């Protein structure tokens, strides 16, 4: 692995474990046992490192939430998207937990974030429409954007909400599982009988993870 990539993954690990605001470029260099000069050769400051991590996150986000083509079982699709929520929230938890502060201090990153969210919203509407076509959800075309926005809102702010509710909250897999259950609860009221059956199976699976 190239040093440039090592810096990114080391920073991601440290940000997730200690909180981004508590980690400096000195910490990252020490963790990798490289000189600070070597780190600055690849990234001029911590903000550039955060932008690089966001670029990786964005690619994975759009890839995971691009409507899947072809024939898939409904439960398989639901599991795919729910697992994607968990994977992204856990892998990039520092970003989810402190999103407003990170974006407010970097205009370039904020502009990139808005552009990615616009693409994501289009994809989410396509995913909701696919579930309607599969007769898992009953929702009108007019209501799809609102539903997509609500689902995105809960998923993207869940960790920040948990952190705000208690200064002692530590982001664990169990906290993310609760966020997944919250997402499921939003969809259940507009589910068809078949969709409700599938959602309840997913719900039971998530609950079993932290039983």
Automatic annotation (TrEMBL):
Presence of keyword Transferase: no
Record-linked Gene3D superfamilies: Tetracycline Repressor, domain 2
DNA-binding region per Swiss-Prot/TrEMBL record: 24-43
Annotated keywords: DNA-binding
PROSITE patterns noted in UniProt: HTH_TETR_2
Domain of life: Bacteria
Keyword DNA-binding recorded: yes
Database matches in InterPro entries: Homeodomain-like_sf, HTH-type_Tx_Regulator, HTH_TetR, TetR
Domain HTH tetR-type per the UniProt entry, residue ranges: 1-61
Name of the protein described by the UniProt record: TetR/AcrR family transcriptional regulator
